[in-house]
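Slack export, channel: ligand-projects

TW: morning all. Re-posting the request from yesterday since it got buried. We need the structure predicted with the small molecule present, not the apo form. The ligand is fe (ii) ion; the SMILES is in the block with the sequence. No rush, but it would help planning for next week.
GE: picking it up
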Amino acid sequence: MNPIRPSFHGPDALRARYRDVRSHSLSLAAPLSAEDQCIQSMPDASPTKWHMAHTTWFFETVLLQPHLAGYQPFDTRFHYLFNSYYEALGPRHPRPQRGLLTRPSHGEVLAYRRHVDEAVDRLLGDAAAIDPAVEAIVTLGLHHEQQHQELLLTDILHALSCNPLLPAYRAGGAPLLRIASVAPEMKWIERDGGVTAIGHAGGEFAFDNETPRHEVLLQPHAIADRLVNCGDFAQFIADGGYRRPELWLSDGWAAVQQQGWSCPAYWLAADDPRLVQHGTTHSGWHVFGLQGARPMEPEAPVSQLSFYEAAAYAEWAGARLPTEFEWEAAFGAPGLSQMQGQVWQWTRSSYDPYPRFKPLAGIAAEYNGKFMVGQVVLRGSSIATPEGHARPTYRNFFPPSARWQFTGLRLAKDIR
Ligand SMILES: [Fe+2]
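GE: finished. pasting the full token output, ligand included:
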């Protein structure tokens, strides 16, 4: 079965979905000025303008050029500027220098988006032109754009966190960080071991890395009913968690030393000069987020943690991180909360191919498979994940030192 077969309900539905996803990118960028959209705060994070152009490049390169007769590229130089990592498509602008692209302007990138959107609309308006290959590419391109929508938010949040003014991405409006409403007391949910089926079974869309579905042997274990929250994590800090090498993996302890970590990435101590200049009177921790700096809320899931910090916390708590298989097998179990929509959850699983994994054909072969080394799987989804994007089988992945995403943890432990 084709693992990326889309759930396709006719050309009009595909066209409408294309418009919805593309316009959502525009609304995410709307609170940002042209200056905001050009900045790159570190090599791992891309400018908003680059995300807006690169997602457009994907449709132009993978969909329109091969499948729309007579398509004229908006600007052939953009192929070099906005390719991300596709070796098969030739050389590209270096990733750490994306923030140097003051040209093309913000307005030109918006014009690029309109040019491509009009062409895609023409292609999708011709029902006869929509064969299964076109459907699959449009669907992949939309899921790709949704991944960049999350990165757009995490990348601009990192950029804003570097600004001493601690500006909010969007002041006011509905809170983007939904605060957990679960009881503070964490409970263990016991799970039997045994052979369980893991991975996506096909039918609806899934990325190739979620397939094929296969059997995994689990040992008896227990999994926490909720995420580790900020109040829990503050206790780890107060107990000297960042100063006790026995809690840390070797690489993690090296990162603590080299980077000077003493709290999650966006936590601010009360005496932080950036807070002092804001004139805040709150005496405890603050957390910088999409609404700017706010007093830490003990019941909110802790976020912006590296895998190393998550693993050290688990060690301190006398527990461990769940494997990605334990996490997926537990999904939907009675009593489990916060599995999706808050923070991505670090697992104790390396990002490896499933048995008999086959990458997608063609250009999309470079989408996932080539990153399967040196990274760790995260499960769930976050407050920044677009609605409907994630699934129980979804495998996110980052290097263990990454801490600019909405990443936290849930505990697990062995039993019996
Ligand atoms: Fe991409």
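GE: first-pass observations. The chain has two domains: 11-161, 188-266+299-414. The radius of gyration is 22 Å.
TW: perfect, thank you
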